[in-house]
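Help!! Second protein's tokens look totally different from the first
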Amino acid sequence: MSQNAVLFIMLVILITSSNGTPLNFKNVEMHPNCRNSTYCFERGADYPSALIEELVNKTDVIKIDGATTEQRGTTDHSIVTPCELNYSLEPIYQVKDINNKVRYVVQATRFQQILKVEWCRNKGEITEDKGEYLKIDKLREDSYSAYCVESYSNYRFLVLAEDGNGFESVKALGVPICCRCEIHPMGKIIKF
């Protein structure tokens, strides 16, 4: 066997994890059910659970700069609003960072990142009355329109480093955190 072949085999051994998977997380793809999203609740077959568990167990203290998951907002869903919303409170397994790269969020037995995500069921202009508190005809008489609009936040998450050898804190790209009603003068262009 040539010296170059031995060097190549040694290099392959050095850049693989204990289960033989290359430690390269630079070109991760979003789970198929979440391709058009900036986050994903789906834990795909390619999620590196064993590696993350191993790294978490080797770590004494894990800290994320910014708000903890417990401080990341709760909503009183008994409040009446003209905008219907959906929400979920569960572990997030993937996020797109502010550079639009898909990253694996650290989820382990002794460290979970759970975030309440809210999104509008029907983004856009409200075209019918919503109880006593929003009368569309009255708004239109006064030259106004009402819209359901999502708010987004760039939360920080602890993610697997791209080389698979540790963790890093990254800002996620626009995770929806609420659905709100906005009233604007008619003719104003609203960005959704």
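Here's the second one for comparison:
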Amino acid sequence: MAGRSHRPGAGREADLRRLRDLLRSAMAAGYDLQRAGVDALYAALYAVREARYADPALRFRADARIVDWSS
């Protein structure tokens, strides 16, 4: 068994390392396509003036309010 470690779990570690490298390369390969899709979506949304927010960083504030419903 030339080149193989006799340490328990060494084969599993190598498999996990290969899997991690494959996933990393697949994600890197798909990033450009994903980014182009997101950019196209936002370009289409921002082309319609009514679809834009007045403040692109609208913030939700859950302030306590007492409303008189009796009137």
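Reply: Different proteins will give different token patterns, so don't panic. Residues 51 and 57 are 14 Å apart (CA to CA).
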